[in-house]
């Protein structure tokens, strides 16, 4: 079950984003981690990224994943997210699990794909520090494409990070530089 | 001006290079120890160039600009590839830890011949920083850093290239003269 019942105040700079701490209760958290750890992950690599990804979990019928999908995407939570970000109601969500191991990364990008309104990532790794890598870096970029690192968010265990997708939403996952596995459940809320 | 390794100027070698170049999915040849002796790498004036989501690296004028536009080298390119290249631009590019370029940075490029000479001093493969060439429906071409080697690649309009993200663990810098020739 969801532990969090409301979203904190949205930070607007450099683009709207928020961190919801202690998102799941401990029983659901254990269930979620067990379920995601039991999935198969394929290594994905391109010029932009290097990570391990599960299959698309949007329509998978699995007891623990059904609970997770509900906690992130039920009507009540969707309405709260839409209201907090001051955007229209969502029609759907998707979700998949990602693991970043040593050397993996995701370079700066803005997530813009038709229909995506809000991006989310539920963080399920306890040991992320500045030394391990795996921070969510968010940037402000000018018209020429020069960027400034505005914030480096070290994802806390059991925190849900959400941000509004736009042509300003430049972010990256910093390279993992130690022997950890950064596990997230990630997806988008769609128009 | 540096001198091309005489081996690469012999007729049988050029004939072989031409055959190899034109037999690849993506036409390319890679020539190790391209110069008789490694050219002295002067310290070019570099500036940080960034377009977020496209590239982040240091750039300056090519170290061997005079050579890349010389009739000697143009003649060599013609013999080795069978093409008629015309110099468009010659730059020195440096990728240090965290730097990258992405394939879509070249989406508006026309048909071209690219030449990359590797000035990198030392490199470990796990640092990334390799050159990647792609063409629709063909296997990508990966060119690891190889100090002293020259890479010649023909790219069509829809073909793309980039330099892979350099790991934060890298203690060296990928350095290359990258030259683009238009094909007439």
Could you describe the 3D structure shown?
The complex is a heterodimer of chains A (191) and B (184). The two termini of chain A are 25 Å apart. Chain A has a single domain (17-190), classed as q2cbj1_9rhob like domain (Jelly Rolls), CATH 2.60.120.620. The longest helix of chain A has 12 residues, at 26-37. Chain A is of the alpha+beta class. Chain A has helices at 26-37, 63-73, 75-85; strands at residues 17-20, 42-45, 49-53, 92-93, 96-100, 105-109, 116-123, 136-141, 147-153, 159-164, 171-173, 182-190. In chain A, strands 1, 2, 3, 4, 5, 6, 7, 8, 9, 10, 11 and 12 form a 12-stranded antiparallel beta sheet that branches. The model of chain A has no long low-confidence stretch (mean pLDDT 96). Chain B is an alpha+beta fold and 184 residues long. Chain B is built from 3 helices and 11 strands. Chain B has helices at residues 11-21, 65-68, 71-81; strands at residues 28-31, 47-51, 55-61, 85-95, 100-101, 112-118, 131-134, 141-143, 150-155, 160-163, 174-183. In chain B, the strands form 2 sheets. In chain B, strands 1, 2, 3, 4, 5, 6, 9 and 11 form an 8-stranded antiparallel beta sheet that branches. Chain B has a 3-stranded antiparallel beta sheet with strand order 8-7-10, with no helix packed on it. In chain B, helix 1 crosses helix 3 (71-81). Chain B is globular, with a radius of gyration of 16 Å. Chains A and B meet through strand 6 of A and strand 5 of B.
């Amino acid at each position: 079950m969801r532990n969090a019942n409301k979203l904190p105040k949205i930070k607007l700079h450099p683009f709207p984003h928020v961190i919801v701490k202690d998102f799941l209760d401990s029983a659901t958290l254990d269930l979620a981690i067990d379920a995601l750890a039991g999935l198969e992950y394929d290594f994905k690599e391109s010029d932009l990224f290097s990570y391990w990804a599960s299959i698309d979990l949007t329509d998978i019928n699995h007891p623990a994943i059904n609970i997770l999908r509900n906690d992130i995407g039920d009507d009540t939570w969707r309405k709260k997210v839409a209201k907090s970000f001051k955007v229209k109601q969502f029609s759907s969500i998707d979700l998949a699990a990602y693991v970043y191991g040593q050397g993996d990364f995701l370079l700066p990008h803005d997530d813009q794909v038709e229909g995506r309104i809000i991006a989310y990532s539920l963080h399920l790794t306890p040991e992320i520090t500045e030394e391990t890598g795996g921070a969510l870096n968010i940037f402000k970029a000018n018209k020429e494409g020069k960027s400034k690192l505005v914030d480096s968010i070290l994802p806390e265990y059991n925190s849900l990070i959400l941000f509004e997708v736009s042509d300003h939403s430049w972010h990256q996952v910093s390279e993992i530089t130690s022997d950890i596995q950064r596990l997230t459940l990630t997806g988008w809320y769609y128009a | 001006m540096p001198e091309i390794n005489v081996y690469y100027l012999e007729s049988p070698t050029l004939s072989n290079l031409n055959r190899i170049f034109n037999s690849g999915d993506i036409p390319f040849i890679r020539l190790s120890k391209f110069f008789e002796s490694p050219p002295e790498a002067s310290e070019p004036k570099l500036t940080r160039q960034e377009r977020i989501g496209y590239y982040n690296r240091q750039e300056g004028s090519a170290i061997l600009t005079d050579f890349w536009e010389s009739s000697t080298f143009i003649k060599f390119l013609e013999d080795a590839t069978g093409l008629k290249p015309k110099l468009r631009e010659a730059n020195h590019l440096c990728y240090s830890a965290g730097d990258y370029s992405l394939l879509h940075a070249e989406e508006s490029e026309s048909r071209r011949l690219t030449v990359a000479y590797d000035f990198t001093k030392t490199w470990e493969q796990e640092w990334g920083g390799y050159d990647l060439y792609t063409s629709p429906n063909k296997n990508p071409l990966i060119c690891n850093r190889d100090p002293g080697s020259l890479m010649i690649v023909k790219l069509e309009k829809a073909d793309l290239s980039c330099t892979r993200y350099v790991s934060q663990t890298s203690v060296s810098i990928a350095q290359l003269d990258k030259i683009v020739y238009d094909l007439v």
